[in-house]
Design brief:
By secondary structure, the protein is mainly alpha-helical. The protein contains 5 helices and no strands.
Length: 103
């Protein structure tokens, strides 16, 4: 099965251009997303195959419009909700709470 996530193996998109000395994370949220993913994997909430499959199920346009760590965040949210770690309502309530604190 080929998905938009398989673009790296397709021809005609040109070489991957890497920035010299590019940092692993460009923002704190990227580092946090990576850490929570690693902790969730270690805790057995999901496995690497499930994480990749979740990313592959992203809508193609959404996948193209989002960054590498946004793909990881999508997968994390999707899997923690679908696995029953927390509900969509709990997730939305926490996001709203954090947004209020930010203001």
């Amino acid at each position: 099965m080929h998905s938009i996530a398989d673009m790296g193996g397709m021809r005609g998109f040109g070489p991957v251009i890497r920035k010299e000395n590019e940092p692993l994370f460009n923002a704190k949220w990227e580092e946090t997303t990576f850490a929570v993913n690693m902790l969730s994997l270690a805790a057995g909430c999901f496995n690497l195959d499930e994480s990749r499959h979740s990313m592959e199920r992203m809508e193609p346009l959404e996948y193209l419009k989002t960054s590498y760590y946004e793909h990881w965040l999508h997968s994390l949210e999707d899997l923690l909700i679908s696995k029953g770690i927390f509900t969509r309502e709990e997730y939305n309530a926490r996001i709203a709470e954090l947004a209020e604190k930010k203001e």
